Amino acid sequence: MKQTKSLSLVVILLLAPVALAQGGGRSPQQSAGKTAARALEVYEQGKRLYDAKDYAGALERFDQAAAIEPDKARWQYNRGLALRKLDRFTEAREALLQSRTLDPAYKRAEIDDKLREMGFSPTPPPSTPASEPPDPSVSTPPAPPPELSVVLREETSKKPANPVWALCPYAGMALLFFLLIRWKLSKAKPLQDPHRASTSTLQPRSEELAPLEERLKQVAASLVQVEHALRLKEDADLRALLNQATMAEQNAWQSIADFRKGTASRSAVTRRLDKAHEAAEAAVAHARGLFGEQAFLPEGERVGCYFCARPLANPSFRMQVPLKRGSQVTHVLACPPCANMAAAGQPPPVTVQRLGNGQTQHWSELRGYDPYTHRHQPYPDMSTVPAWQYTPERSLGEVAAMAAGGALATGLAAYGVSQLLDLDSASEAAAAQAATQAAAKQASERREERDWKDHS
Q: Where are the annotated TPR repeats, by residue (predicted)?
């Protein structure tokens, strides 16, 4: 420990002259640019962890990005996504609303959808009255942690500065360089989840998995009944309870999958199952309170969202989305979250089954696929593809009719029509975005290589 502290002190002393030479000519704009680049780099680490379903690790990185740039709505939005995956719904709501406060226009429709799915009502961002503008001399933005940023100040006083205090910015720059070197060295090591490492030796037996899966199937069957019950009336409270129970159920399925691979403990699976069971019981009880036993007798129409296959038992939960490909326009039925994405110009992904020959089949074309059942019980080999990439073998109008239960979407009741979604334009925009991201990645790799040389 003493050697480590001594080495750290030596590095700081050696880097102090370099920091003095480089820091003296750096402008506030350059410092802000480095801060933004650092936040983006940490976010990219979190995004990779999120895609790998390591939501706890992703949240840690998103927290770091938010600490570096506290006024960036994007980091708070991603914090909300990770917290939502961890079943920390109250904290997720706070993060999403904080994102909206920082930038009311940022992903407005997506935030509304996420809040509804968690059972919260979307809250409009707070507005400042025109008669009381904020006083810049009183309010100050939250400051990032001192070890992650350096504040450069210009001298405004004619009084000679104390030479001791004048050295503080340079000492801070030296500390920043030291932390940067330590971060570069740690980045070379692969990220590892300690909990996952400690549970990697678990190998469950089939007799252990069977009762867990059977219990979760009972939860799924209860939620399928609630999906059908909504045909009688669209109720906001019942929809919120159903959404919360579905999220808990999906988390439980994921826990069982992790347990099967040996990356989760039986106790962790049991906790998730308990949450899913309690949430499903609450939804069933509310449906029975609204409709009595009638809720669980007949079934709703076989109508599902063209994009995500979500069941659309009640007409007031459906929207029509016109899809344009070439010169042809086809109306499809969609759930409100997918319709909101389409209205914002973001094509929702389409649920398909990948075939062995590389082709795909729309969920409505699959034998035995039921939107109500398979929203809660996995159907084999299902995945999603971007809407502009999906090209059915039959006409798009035929597929849209099959998803709508055999009728044209324009002939079914729906509570509204979304804006036109141009799939050709979406394809071009996606290609341009992919090219931009590839160029940015190459530039980042070149910059990283240059930084290594600069600081070696």
A: 39-72
List, as one string, the DSSP characters of 266-318: HHHHHHHHHHHHHHHHHHHHHHHHHHGGGGGSS---S-B-TTT--B--SGGG-
- Tell me which amino acid residue 47 is: K
- Tell me, yes or no, if the pTM score tops 0.90: no
Q: What is the pLDDT of residue 167?
A: 55
Rounded CA gap, 310 and 349, in Å?
A: 13
Spatial distance between the Cα atoms of 186 and 310, rounded to a whole number of angstroms: 43
d(CA 323, CA 388): 10
pLDDT at residue 21 in the model: 44
pLDDT of residue 219: 96
CATH of domain 2-127+144-187: 1.25.40.10
CA atoms of 413 and 15, how far apart (whole Å): 70
- Which residues are CB-contacts of 120 (< 8 A; sequence separation ≥ 6)? 89, 93, 240
Helix (H) or strand (E) holding 175: helix 168-187
User: Beta strand 350-354 with 382-385: parallel, antiparallel or unpaired?
Assistant: antiparallel
Query: Where along the chain do the CATH 1.25.40.10 domains lie?
Result: 2-127+144-187
Residues 20, 173: contact at Cβ < 8 Å?
yes
Q: Are the C-beta atoms of residues 447 and 438 closer than 8 Å to each other?
A: no
